[in-house]
Amino acid sequence: MAQKLQFAFKLEASQTDNKTCVIAITSITTEDDKKYTLSETDKYASRHIALTKTETYKRVRKSLNQRGQERTIWMTCTEEMIQAYFDEDNNLMFNDLYLKEEKKQTDIVESTQKKKGLNLKNISERFMIEKFVCKFSNAKQWIEIFENECKRFEIEEDTTKIEILRLFLDKTCADWHSATFEDFKN
Fold it and tell me: Among 25, 61, 112, 133, which residue's Cβ finds the most Cβ atoms within 10 Å?
């Protein structure tokens, strides 16, 4: 069975000349979903001779025409690519250097949230915002400030924002929130 690798390509500025665009390989993923990164010097596609000879790479090169664009493509490895990217034990390498395996993003996010302890009451007390009172507050302006505070504390999940929002509402608004949140959960 032929081996496949998923290459993530990005068109970016050259390190030597900012006016020149070059294709960089931001990561290589194996079929068993392990993601690897290349060193700064080896990330440029021009250093990957076996890869640049393939028709798939030529199509990727045509697809990338603006700086910052990205493409992630699965490629079946040619014999030349297998020799360039794998050692005798099927470990991923390039230029006789083993590649660095990246941790999965979900594992990192979960461990970060556990460390933070995401205690909503404590976070809400550190918000620089007054309670929302229907009679005296400009709703649009207040929500913008609330959103900025959520960004400041790196709260991105909508359900978490809604739970924190409840802590800043007066009695009338809190009653509305409770009814609406129940609908949202269902």
Answer: 25
